[in-house]
Amino acid sequence: MNVLFVSSGNSKKGISSLVFEQGESLRSLGYEIDYYLIKGKGLKGYLNNLISLRKKYKLGNYDIVHAHNIFCGFLCGIAFLKPLVVSLMGWNVQIFYLKYLIYIFNYLFWDICIVKSKSMQLALKRMKTKIIPNGVDINIFRPMNKKMAQEYLNWDVEKYHFLFAADPRIPIKNFSLCKQAISTLPGDQYILHTLGDVERRYMPYYYNACNVVIFTSKGEGSPNVIKEAMACNCKIVSVAVGDVPERFKEVKGCFLCQYKVEDISKKIIEALNFPDKEVNSRQAILSLNSSLIGEKLSEVYRLVTSR
C-alpha cells in the first residue's frame, strides 16, 4: 500500500521525529511511505501549498493520505485528497472555533479521525474518533546506567540533575513554573537541563542521566516525551495534562502534581527519595511500542480502503 503522509515542515529539523518514526513503523510492515511537508504558517501559508500538494497527490498514485495535525487535515480536505485519515495531535481540539471546524471537515471530507487520548476523544464527543497514541521506539529509548550517561554528557556526577522535558522557549510548555519549583528546593546541589536544542540521538542519554524528569505543560494531547522517559524507566513529576494520568496509573516512580510551585517541589523530593530499583515505568509503556502502534494504523488503513 502506498501512503502519503502530510505534515508540517516548518521546524529546523523539517519533518517531525514523531511523524517520521510512525512512517518507519509502517515501512517495516511493508508499506510505501512518502511525505509532503507543509512550508509556511497561518492560513495563507498553508493555502500556498494547495496546488503543489494536489500535484504530488495526482502523480503519486497513493492508496491513502494520512494528515498529521488539524491544519494539515483541513488542507487535505479542501484539496479533495481521498481516502483521508487525519490524526489530531494535541490540546487545540478544545478551542471552540477549531472544534466546530473539525466537526464540519470530518463530516464533509475525512474518512477516519484519530485522536491521541481519551481527553481528546471526550472533547470531540459529537463525532466518532479512534484513539491511537503516538508510539515510542523502545529499542532506542531504553534504560542505561545513570553514571555512564552523566559522564557521556559531561554532567557533574556529584549533583542532582533535573530534565525539563520540552523546549523552554515555547510558552505553553510553562518552563517558568518548573524553574520556580526547583528554586524552592533546599540546598544548591541541583542542575536543571532542558530538551530545547537536543538532537534526538542524544535524548536517551538525557533521560537516563537525569534524576527526575519534570513536565509542567499547560496543554497536550499525548506528550511523547513522557512516554520516552517512561521507556527509559525514569522517575517523572508531571502535571495531569493530556493522557499523562492514564499513563501513570499504577506506575511506581511517576508522580502527578498540581500547577502549584509547592506541590511540584514536594513531588520532586518524593521522586528523589523513591528507590531507583522500584521504578517500573518502562513496563507500563511497552504496549505503546512503535511496532504495535504501526499495526493499529495498518488496521485503520485496511478499514478505510475496503469501504
Strand order of the largest sheet: 2-1-3-4-5-6
- Class based on secondary structure composition and strand pairing: alpha/beta
Q: Which percent band covers the strand fraction?
A: 15-25%
Average pLDDT for all residues: 94
Please give the CATH class of the largest domain.
Alpha Beta
Q: What characteristic shape results from the CA principal axes?
A: elongated
- Could you say what the CATH topology of the largest domain is called? Rossmann fold
From N to C, what is the helix and strand string?
Answer: EHEHHEHEHEHEHEHEHEHEHEHHH
| Poorly predicted parts | none
Cα-to-Cα separation, first versus last residue: 15 Å
Main β-sheet: number of strands, strand sense, barrel status? 6 strands, parallel
- What percentage of residues falls in helices of 4 or more residues? 40-55%
Round the Cα radius of gyration to an integer and report it: 20 Å
Question: Which CATH architecture of the largest domain?
Answer: 3-Layer(aba) Sandwich
Q: What is the fourth-level CATH superfamily of the largest domain? A: Glycogen Phosphorylase B
What is the number of strand segments? 11
Helix count equals 14
Number of domains: 2
Overview of this protein structure:
- By secondary structure, the chain is α/β, with parallel strands linked by helices.
- It has two domains: about 1-135 and about 290-305, Glycogen Phosphorylase B (Rossmann fold); about 145-290, Glycogen Phosphorylase B (Rossmann fold, 3-Layer(aba) Sandwich), CATH 3.40.50.
- About 40% of the residues lie in helices and about 15% in strands.
- The chain is built from 14 helices and eleven strands.
- The chain has helices at about 15-25, 40-45, 50-60, 70-80, 95-110, 120-125, 145-150, 175-185, 205-210, 225-230, 245-250, 260-275, 280-285, 290-305, and strands at about 1-10, 30-40, 65-70, 85, 110-115, 130, 160-165, 190-195, 210-215, 235-240, 255.
- The strands form two sheets. The protein has a six-stranded parallel sheet, sandwiched between helices. Strands 8-7-9-10-11 form a five-stranded parallel sheet, sandwiched between helices.
- The chain is elongated and about 60 Å long.
- The mean pLDDT is about 95.
